[in-house]
Amino acid sequence: MTVRIGTGAGFSSDRLDPALKLIEEGNLDYIIFECVGERTLAFGHRDRMADPAKGYNKQLEIRMRAVLPLAVKHGVKIITNMGVANPSMAAERTVAVARSLGIEGLKVAFIEGDDVSNLIGPNTEIPEINGVVKDVRKPVVGANAYIGADALLPALAAGADVIITGRCADPSLFLAPLRHHYGWESDDWSRMGAGTLVGHLMECGMQITGGYFADPGRKDVLDLVHCGYPIAEVESDGSAVITKLDSAGGLVDTRTVKEQMLYEVHDPERYLTPDVTADFSHTHIDQEAPNRVRIAEATGREWPELLKVTLAFDGGVLAEGGVSYAGPGASSRARLAAQVVETRMREIHGLQEKIRCDLIGVQSLLATAKAGVGPDSEDVRLHVGMRTENQESAEMLLWEVESLLCCGPAGGGGFRGQIQASVHTESTYIARENVPTKFQMLTT
Amino acid sequence: MSKVTLREIAHARAGDKGNISSISVWAYDPKHYPAMKAQCTEDWAAQAFGRLLEGSVKRYTLDHLHGLNFVFTNALEGGVNGSLNLDGHGKSFSYILLGQEIDASE
After folding, report:
1. A117 near B CB under 8 A
2. B81: pLDDT strictly greater than 90
3. Fewest C-beta atoms under 10 Å: which of A70, A89, B63, B90?
4. SS3 for A143?
5. Which helix (H) or strand (E) holds A232?
6. CA-based nearest residue to A73, from A7, A24, A3
7. Is A35 helix (H, G, I), strand (E, B) or coil?
8. pLDDT higher than threshold 80 for residue A360
9. Reduced to 3 states, what is the DSSP secondary structure of residue A333?
10. pLDDT single digits (tens) B20-31
11. CA of B67, closest CA in chain A: separation in Å?
């Protein structure tokens, strides 16, 4: 018998309806909701600082309200890092939702220990910038070590129905139930590598079932509207089949699996997680049947001695404003508008911050990579962006862009502007023995 | 000589970690892989990234799967938390490589 694991979310804002369908029809043992990235973690800390009762995933309650009754009905265990910067509060909220639904006897575990803020100081080293924390010149809002599957095993052994973590490494959320089910030892590096590949392939949800893939005419995907989340059927040796529900849209083939295998991977022989130094370089990827891909021969070596730590800093705000130009000469008028905004921000308002002006429709995303100016267009949007620690400067940028409506080139319209909180993250490393974890169980 | 854009013979996906962009490129048909491996070098990738690349490029090869993995350091204009590019993750940057021309004759 294989273990059947599904993905219910591959990032913080991922879709809910396909997760419900997967629980109902997938005959799953576990469903994993992976919802934390460096940015979401940093924003979680900001939210928690503003309100100690916040800092967990914003959709936690909506998700749990829909998921819990189905998971209980079908006997599917839930593992998630939706605790983000506040796992204990996320667990309390989950218990409250379960109680309000009349679910009795539900065991909800939360894992703590990843928050290592107390070990971080102004002189903590940041290798990537060849400097230390104080060199960043921004307030630290949080610091979390990536914890691994080890941290989840005691909660699984205690019979948790729901496990909520903070900064657990994404693949570890999948490796933990495999270790629990098959009794794999933590130094069985080959299986740690194999299970980590399963987790890595599954952690981004639809990125392996046709999402982030479709390119009409080259890579066609059937019914992307109803794209399904993936299922992994994992064997005791760590090999697996990646598949999806027949009734869901999407595509699982060797191309989707290959693209995802190296997604955010640098050296395929050395993919570092808290659990293992995984080696994907000899992986076999074979189409077994339509929408069924078999993976085998992933392996691994001893885990890294140091755990990665994400340092979150307050990054001020990101201000963005835009105005559109259309018809003959639109590109020239948009260019003139850009010049007016940038010059006025410097000369009249004295701002020093970096300002970026994009001409959407002419050249924007690839503007830095491509030398020269893109072809003229008759439908151009000037987009102006600036990061600043000063709210008034941000508001001034939007005011200047909006003023183009009367004071700028001919025919400008459709101003929109927004100011968003911004975060900054860096990485440091910490000895694993300094990151003890523990779990607590709440019961409805 | 049979010049094609790489998109005709290969598919790709971009990922990001901080200010590092990684892009895997895969031949649809194994017969095109030798040409890709010979021509899609680190220098080729660096040239394609142009001024985006403020660091270096490292290429890894997966011959049995007909894939190349490029890792570009300091190549995301500061990364998603620092970039003013509308696409701070560089998700669209796989198409920088797929837009390059290569000689696909066998």
Report:
1. no
2. no
3. B63
4. strand
5. strand A231-234
6. A24
7. coil
8. yes
9. helix
10. 999 999 999 999
11. 8
For B56, other C-beta atoms within 10 Å of its C-beta total 12
CA dihedral B63, B66, B71, B72 (to 10 degrees): 130
Considering the segment(s) B3-103 as one domain, its CATH architecture is: 2-Layer Sandwich (3.30)
Alpha carbon distance A348, A350 (integer Å): 6
Task: Point out which residues pair with A359 in neighbouring strands.
Answer: A363, A382
- The rounded distance, in Å, linking the Cα atoms of A319 and A64 is 34
Cβ-defined contact of A264 to B92 (cutoff 8 Å):
no
Q: Which residue has the higher pLDDT, A129 or A77?
A: A77
* Beta sheet of B67-72, edge-to-edge order: B10-17, B20-27, B67-72, B57-62
| Three-class secondary structure of residue A299 per DSSP | strand
Nearest chain B residue (CA) to A262: B24
**% of chain A beyond a pLDDT of 90:** 98
Tokens 């020239």 correspond to: A332
Cα–Cα distance measured from residue A116 to residue A14, given in angstroms and rounded to the nearest whole number:
28
Euclidean distance between CA atoms A114 and A95, whole angstroms: 22
Least confident window among A253-267, A348-362, B76-90: B76-90
Query: Crossing angle, helix A254-261 and helix A189-202, to 10 degrees?
Result: 110
The CA distance from A143 to A120, in Å, is 7
Residues with Cβ within 8 Å of A109's Cβ and at least 6 positions away in sequence, in order, are A91, A155, A158, A160, A162, A163, A164, A439, A440, A441, A442
Among B14, B23, B11, B12, which Cα is nearest to B89's? B14
Note whether A218 contacts B84, CB cutoff 8 Å: no
CA distance, residue A330 to nearest chain B CA (Å): 21
Give the per-residue pLDDT at B80.
86
- Distance, first Cα to last Cα, chain B: 9
Nearest alpha-carbon partner for A338 in A413, A401, A396: A401
How far is the C-alpha of A324 from the C-alpha of B106, rounded, in Å? 47
Torsion over CA: A120, A122, A124, A130 (sign): positive
Is the predicted pLDDT of residue A4 greater than 90, yes or no? yes
Q: Once rounded to an integer, what is the mean pLDDT over residues B50-62? A: 97
**Cα separation of A134 and A132, whole Å?**
6
- Of the candidates A263, A383, A385, which has its C-beta nearest B13's C-beta? A263
Number of other residues whose CB lies within 10 A of the CB of residue B103: 11
Count the Cβ atoms, other than its own, within 10 Å of residue A55: 24
Per-residue pLDDT of A407-429, as tens digits, reads 999 999 999 999 999 999 999 99
The string over A262-293, giving b where at least 16 C-beta atoms fall within 10 Å of a residue's C-beta and e elsewhere, is bbbbbbbbbbbbbbbbbbbbebebeeeeebbb
Scanning A374-413 for CB atoms below 8 A from B yields: 383, 385-387
Structure token digits, residue A56? 């967990």
Taking the C-alpha atoms of residue A401 and residue A383, their distance in angstroms, rounded to an integer, is 9
Structure tokens at B102: 């290569």
Structure tokens at A431: 């000895």
The structural domains of chain A, ordered by start, are: 3-310+427-443 (no CATH), 317-424 (3.30.70.600)
Query: pLDDT tens digits for A225-261?
Result: 999 999 999 999 999 999 999 999 999 999 999 999 9
